[in-house]
UniProtKB/TrEMBL annotation:
Family: Belongs to the major facilitator superfamily. Sugar transporter (TC 2.A.1.1) family.
Any GO molecular function: carbohydrate:proton symporter activity
Transmembrane segments: 47-66, 73-92, 104-125, 137-159, 171-192, 253-278, 290-308, 320-341, 347-368, 389-411, 417-435
InterPro entries: MFS_dom, MFS_sugar_transport-like, MFS_Sugar_Transporters, MFS_trans_sf, Sugar/inositol_transpt, Sugar_transporter_CS
Protein name, entry field: Transporter
Entry annotated with the keyword Transport: yes
GO cellular component, one term: membrane
Length: 472
């Protein structure tokens, strides 16, 4: 059973994920607000992509260094510093008088986001016992989806404000949240016990672990070994180049692939540009577009919350395969409707329903598994660095999607859907053959799966054919 202290620490740490989701949910609505256009921000599809994706570009770059920084100064202080930078960037966005200033603000916010976002998953993985690691880490995705819904409905509410405060208010709220998060991290969150072990502070690590996992009102002693905090002396120092050494590079590449494919599923194209997609499907009124976008955000939240308790039952591999196939079929239906010219009348409602079904499929599978899997398969000495690189791959592809999606969609209504469908089916196939299962496994057990010398196959992984095999 997970203690209340673990849930509280993971929840507060995930406030950073909420901020990420809030920006994702609000920016697509902001750039199409009449008040935003009236403030001198009339943007072409290309400039819309630039405004949306700027935060992702700088986040991708800073994310490359987040792991090394967190290994030096701790997970907690890295999240705090990132939040302070994000706060400054959001404040610049809020007061922006012109497009150049707005882009600068988003670039600054992206630097901060790149520091705290990948480290949240590492922190939650490291404070959780193996048996409930998936459920605890799912708080991150719940926070993201809550943030997305909050961003949608914040804009739905502020769109009724007649002046520029309609679009400045969401940025003001972002900045305020980041200030609370940055100030709270050092005072509320305990240091990661595994980071303390890595730094040679074993007594302090055991003290923190016992404090985290002691149940309320219980004096029962805690078996520290149960939570896998012991590390070799060789793991106390690492270099970012270590993530591509022979014994770990297959894990790094697998994590990077899965995190990149999560974005090429098309999820952020839908989340960023939901108002545009619903308008394309036939919803013409501005408020209807915002409302439809908000409903998709709430649906995302509900699915994530409902499915989280089953995270450690279904497993990471099975979830990735089933999710990829299901989402691929849904995207195929949407693309086929547009390709056949049947997107009017009843066809538009089929498209809208399919978009909602896609969100359900993503929220119940890939949204819950990818980030935790990319982090938990890494050895302690490389976990932060490898997770940061994988997150940068995620953000880099996210940038590409955000930058090109409006232009791509304007030139062809079917092209994006065929691309996403191909990526989804490809990922499902890779997971079927080369993705070992990690649910309920200790870090030591996961290490054995990846370090076996008897595994041929791609990246040193033995091909897997049986979905429920005990060897995966």
């Amino acid at each position: 059973m997970v203690s209340a202290k673990v849930w509280w620490a993971a929840s507060f740490a995930s406030l950073g994920a909420f901020m990420f989701g809030f920006d994702t949910g609000s920016i697509g609505s902001i750039v199409v607000m009449n008040q935003f256009v009236d403030s001198g921000f009339k943007l072409s599809p290309t400039l819309q992509g630039v405004v949306v994706s700027t935060i992702l570009i700088t986040s991708t770059i800073s994310g490359l260094f987040a792991g090394s920084l967190s290994d030096k100064i701790s997970r907690v202080f890295t999240m705090a510093i990132g939040s302070a930078i994000f706060c400054a960037g959001s404040a610049i966005e809020c007061v922006s008088p012109n497009l150049a200033c707005l882009i600068v603000g988003r670039a600054v916010a992206g630097v901060g986001e790149g520091f705290f976002l990948p480290i949240i998953a590492v922190y939650c993985v490291e404070i959780s016992p193996a048996v409930s690691r998936g459920r605890v880490t799912c708080i991150i995705q719940i926070a993201v989806t809550l943030g997305i819904a909050a961003g949608f409905f914040c804009c739905y509410g502020t769109v009724h404000i007649s002046d520029s405060f309609a679009w400045r208010t969401p940025f003001l709220l972002q900045s305020s949240l980041a200030l609370i998060y940055g100030l709270g991290c050092p005072f509320i969150l305990p240091f990661s016990p595994r980071w303390l072990y890595m730094k040679g502070k074993k007594a302090k690590a055991e003290e923190v672990m016992r404090s985290l996992h002691r149940q309320n009102g219980s004096n029962e002693s805690i078996n520290v070994e149960e939570f896998e905090v012991d590390v070799d002396e060789t793991e106390q120092k690492s270099d970012i180049r270590d993530i591509f050494k022979k014994d770990v590079r297959k894990r790094t590449l697998l994590a990077c692939f899965l995190m990149a494919m999560q974005q090429l599923s098309g999820i952020d194209g839908i989340l960023y540009y939901a108002p545009v997609l619903f308008a394309q499907a036939g919803l013409s009124a501005s408020t209807s577009k915002f409302l439809a976008s908000g409903v998709s955000g709430l649906l995302n939240v509900a699915v994530t919350i409902i499915c989280t308790p089953f995270m450690d039952r279904m497993g990471r591999r099975r979830s990735t395969i089933i999710g990829g196939i299901t989402m691929g079929c849904i995207i195929c239906i949407i693309g086929s409707i547009y390709a056949s010219g049947a997107s009017t009348g009843g066809g538009q409602w089929v498209i809208i329903v399919c978009l909602y079904l896609f969100l359900i499929a993503f929220g119940s599978t890939w949204a819950l598994t990818t980030r935790v899997y990319a982090s938990e398969i890494q050895p302690l000495r490389n976990r932060a660095a490898a997770s940061s690189i994988a997150n940068s791959c995620n953000q880099g592809v996210n940038t590409l999607v955000a930058l090109t999606f409006p232009v791509f969609l304007a030139s062809t209504t079917t092209g994006p859907y065929w691309l996403f469908m191909g990526c989804l089916f490809t990922t499902a196939a890779v997971a079927w053959f080369y993705m070992p299962e990690t649910k309920g496994r200790s870090f030591a057990s996961i290490e054995q799966v990846f370090t076996t010398q008897k595994a041929p196959g791609v990246m040193g992984l033995r091909p897997i054919f049986k979905l429920g095999s005990k060897n995966v």
